[in-house]
Fold this sequence. Notes:
Layout: H1 3-11, H2 14-21, H3 25-51, H4 61-89, H5 91-95, H6 98-123, H7 131-156
Helix pairs in contact: 2-4, 3-4, 3-7, 6-7
Amino acid sequence: MSLLSLFEWCENTGIGEAIRVSTWWFPIIEGVHLLGLCVIGGAILVVDMRLLGLGLRRQPVAELARDSRPFLIGSLAVMLVTGPLLFSSEAVKCYYSTAFWFKMTSLLLAIIFTFTVRQRVTLADETRVGPIKARLVALISLALWSGVGIGGRWIGFS
């Protein structure tokens, strides 16, 4: 089975077809997906800005990361449910879309980076993580998650 065949199958499922032909399902699901993006953006941004030394300087990075983690996990879960639903309604379009592949690559890299490198840095003792390393991690995190958002908007315009 080729990848294109898999995408065609996804688009022809009952769920994909129902979302595609409905007047309201796609915009409702997309709205929830975008709300998830806003929440994850906030959870990422507040910690990364702290790693950059911008804002919330009195609160330790580890505490801030722990406090924002439920929002990060919850919104990621929302997006990982709503994203495939949106995909199923236009899978073949996504197959041919550079924007889709850019977004999926950014998403995979962002998730891996967030739950490995970034997590180790944010939960480490601040005296053991130098400011240059913290800033570099924040900038990479912001770039990867921005790629996800930019890729998503790009899909809508392509």
